[in-house]
């Protein structure tokens, strides 16, 4: 028996997920290195004081249904997400020995050039804390220009 995919959990009666067309419209952050027991309610407790959370989704293993250690938090605006990213990233998660690991969620952003051909993406996880976006891009660019 396989677990069903978990939907984005809306908070405060927010609308369903907003599909950004430009980088300035991105209002969702990726959050990683979560404790194995962290779920949507727990993540909401970290950000509820902002009053700006629209939805939270913790990604789960399709077979076991257990959290995979990362998820997405959607805020009401790009500015709010930017503020959270700048103020939380790298700081200690309350009641844990872990630090917040946040980044922009880039899925679905219309950045492609018209002549770029089909777009393919993969998720790369469990990276060392010193791996930057640039280092990751350059690593793949060598083989996939």
TrEMBL record:
Residues 27-107 form the RRM domain. One of its GO terms (molecular function) is RNA binding. GO terms for cellular component: nucleus. Its main location: nucleus. One of its GO terms (biological process) is mRNA processing. Keywords: mRNA processing, Nucleus, Repeat, RNA-binding. It is found in: Nucleus. CDD domains: RRM1_SECp43_like. The keyword Repeat applies. SUPFAM superfamilies: RNA-binding domain, RBD. Heterogeneous nuclear ribonucleoprotein (hnRNP)-protein binding the poly(A) tail of mRNA and probably involved in some steps of pre-mRNA maturation. This is RRM domain-containing protein. It comes from Cinchona calisaya.
């Amino acid at each position: 028996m396989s677990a069903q995919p978990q939907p984005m959990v809306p908070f405060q009666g927010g609308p369903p997920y907003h599909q950004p067309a430009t980088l300035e419209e991105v209002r969702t952050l990726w959050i990683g290195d979560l404790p194995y027991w962290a779920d949507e309610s727990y993540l909401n407790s970290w950000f509820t004081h902002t009053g700006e959370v629209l939805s939270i989704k913790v990604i789960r293993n399709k077979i076991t249904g257990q959290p995979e250690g990362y998820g997405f938090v959607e805020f009401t605006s790009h500015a709010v997400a930017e503020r959270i990213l700048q103020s939380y990233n790298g700081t200690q998660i309350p009641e844990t020995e872990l630090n917040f690991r946040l980044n922009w969620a880039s899925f679905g952003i219309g950045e492609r050039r018209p002549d770029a051909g089909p777009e393919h993406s993969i998720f790369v996880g469990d990276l060392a804390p010193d791996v930057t976006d640039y280092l990751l891009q350059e690593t793949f660019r060598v083989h996939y220009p």
